């Protein structure tokens, strides 16, 4: 396994529980050393976080400035739009099974492979759009294992909000949630017209009254990386500072 720091690596991960092979990406920072324990940033739609968000460059810049602690970035890319709907969407056929895979198999592999801090408060889940819903889904299902999550413009419906209402342990969570003001009427990657703004406001309304750490922002702009990317600086400082 390639442990070269400062590069994004890709491996095929065989899941014993699901009997399938998934692509996993990982980035070890330039300062990587086995002598130190690291936070884990787990991104979904990881190829987009690297390509459009340039998350590893943002991390390195903040490390140089002494604003963040040591962290590795691990991610799950999506092989196709269909796969994304099936696995990351809260209503996807394999969604629940994949939430279990992340919380049982994937994080154990990460903790056994890299020197990590191994606690919920040192793990950060991140995603945008359907992958943002997935990040929140994992956190709300396993709040003690993953207590920090970020969702940019997640897909939200009543069933998704119900997941939060059903979780008695929300006080473990520290969430960061954004939605674009232009997302009341836009075209999704699947080509459908959608309103994400209204249901995201409903989720915000519910979470505002609950006993968790929660930050919510309505951003100028739409459902695109140009809107999400500038948030990464604040987020990495907030969770890794």
TrEMBL record:
InterPro entries: AB_hydrolase_fold, Esterase-like, Mycobacterial_A85_antigen
SUPFAM superfamilies linked to this entry: alpha/beta-Hydrolases
Domain of life (superkingdom): Bacteria
Official protein name in the record: Enterochelin esterase
């Amino acid at each position: 396994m390639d442990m070269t720091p400062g590069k994004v690596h890709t491996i095929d991960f065989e899941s014993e529980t699901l009997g399938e092979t998934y692509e996993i990406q990982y980035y070890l920072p330039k300062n990587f050393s086995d002598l130190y324990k690291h936070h884990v940033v787990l991104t979904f739609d990881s190829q987009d976080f690297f390509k459009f968000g340039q998350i590893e460059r943002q991390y390195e810049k903040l490390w140089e400035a002494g604003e963040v602690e040591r962290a590795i970035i691990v991610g799950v890319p999506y092989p196709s739009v269909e796969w994304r709907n099936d696995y990351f969407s809260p209503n996807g056929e394999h969604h629940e099974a994949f939430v279990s895979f992340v919380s049982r198999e994937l994080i154990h592999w990460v903790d056994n492979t890299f020197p990590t801090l191994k606690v919920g408060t040192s793990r950060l889940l991140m995603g945008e759009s359907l992958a943002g819903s997935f990040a929140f889904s994992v956190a709300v299902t396993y709040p003690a294992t993953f207590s920090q999550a970020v969702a940019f413009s997640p897909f939200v419906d009543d069933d998704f909000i119900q997941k939060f209402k059903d979780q008695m342990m929300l006080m473990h969570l520290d969430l960061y949630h954004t939605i674009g003001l232009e997302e009341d009427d836009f075209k999704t990657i699947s080509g459908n017209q959608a309103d994400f703004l209204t249901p995201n406001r409903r989720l915000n309304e519910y979470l505002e009254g609950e006993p968790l750490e929660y930050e919510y922002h309505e951003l100028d702009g739409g459902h695109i990386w140009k809107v999400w990317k500038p948030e990464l600086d604040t987020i990495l400082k907030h969770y890794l500072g």
